[in-house]
Amino acid sequence: MKHKIFFASSKLSVYFLITSVSLLITLFQIQLIKHPSSSPLTPIFLPLKDLTFATTPMDGNTWFMSSLNDTFEDGEAEHLLFPSPSFHHNLLLCFSGRHRSNGTKNSYALAPHHSLPSGAKLFKGLTFISDSYYDYENLWHGLSAMVPFLAWHSSNGCEKPERWLLYHWGELRVEMSPWVRMLVEAVMGEKVRIEDLEEKGEGLFCFERALVFRHNEGSMGMKRKNMVYDMMRCKARAFCGLGSGGGEGHGMVRVTLLMRKGARSFKDEEMVARIFDRECGKVEGCRLKVMRPNNLSFCDQVKLMAETDVLASPHGAQLTNMFFMDKNSRVMEFFPKGWKEFAGVGQYVFQWIAKASGIKHQGPWHDSNADTCPYTDNSRCFGFYKNGQIGHDQAYFTNWTAMVIRDMREYKLTEEYRHAQQELRSRKCLCTT
């Protein structure tokens, strides 16, 4: 028995020794990457995706370039800028690898301009580098990744990048949704150039200047968000040849019921449309449009929102367009059963956009009628409910719709509204030449 205990203790000691040595090596590598002048072995490349942070990939420094600390500026999203005289010895950022399915096979290092890694290609000018835990195809996910870059652009002399480098979990991405691309092009005033790294020799490259965001909007303050969303609204409308102010007629209320197909669509679209049409017909100057976002171009969507005072729609990416509406417009959002209980913070994303863009979110409606989740494990129930269809409550929808339309009409008859429209028409967009 004593021999077994001794043997187990020996194995445990060896395990702790190996773990300790591995940790010391990692810490040594981190010190080398932060202080390369201290060793002739530099540059030391570390994985872009650090699996030691796999359980907390969005916390702290994130698992993307985990050894480097962000720069925090008042009200701005945390970021990394290379080179920086006060940060990392004025070194350049270098990457190795172009893997699209395993971020641990891509790596990064810091190096002085006069001593770049052998065979490295130097990208001239400014490179915008994004790592997102989510994707760039979904409108909301793509928007939240782009907002910090557009904010930095507006507060740094409207400087534009030579190229974009996109990562998801440290894996290279070469596409973003056409809607996200068009929005960025509208704001920047030029085409988005996404680097694919396909013809770059051995896949070793450094950046003359690089701006890195890896937390999406992160710690950006509300005042700064309001400014960025104002700029995006203004620049998108100008890009699409629309006026700054969307007001039309004295007290006119323009209601858009934006439908979805399939997931999170209304079970009885005709009934929902009749409720909105009936209540709109009771208010002088109210006009209703029943629309679908399918096959609408970017500018079609901007125009539709610029001509909308009240937007009603199921929860979904199409609601991202709301910030193209005038400030103080109204939004009504509908959910299938199960979202309130199991969706977590994801159910609030359009309330966040509304707040950032000055839109008044009139509260969600959650359907309570659907099949009961068959799983005892609640973590599986959201998947069961996520894409369900949405029913309706005729009495509730009637009262809610009537209240929102009347409230919007009363606002559009105020001096506050007229003053806001005049100010909007006279104001130039940020970063307008």
Q: In the CATH hierarchy, what is the superfamily of the largest domain?
A: Flavodoxin domain
Supply Rg: 26 Å
Reported by name, the CATH topology of the largest domain is Rossmann fold
Low-confidence sequence ranges: 1-12, 14-30, 37-41
| CATH architectural grouping of the largest domain | 3-Layer(aba) Sandwich
Proportion in β-strands = 15-25%
What's the number of structural domains?
2
The end-to-end distance, rounded to whole angstroms, is 83 Å
Report the sheet with the most strands, covering strand number, pairing sense and barrel closure.
8 strands, mixed
Average pLDDT: 89
Total helices: the number is: 11
Shape: globular
How would you describe what is shown here?
With 433 residues, the protein is α/β, with parallel strands linked by helices. It is 35% helix and 18% strand. The protein is built from 11 helices and 13 strands. The strands form 2 sheets. Strands 1, 2, 3, 4, 5, 6, 7 and 8 form an 8-stranded mixed sheet that branches. The chain has a 5-stranded parallel sheet with strand order 10-9-11-12-13, with helices on both faces. Strand 6 (163-168) and strand 7 (171-173) form a beta hairpin. Helix 2 packs parallel to helix 3 and helix 5 crosses helix 10. The model is unreliable at 1-12, 14-30 and 37-41 (pLDDT under 50).
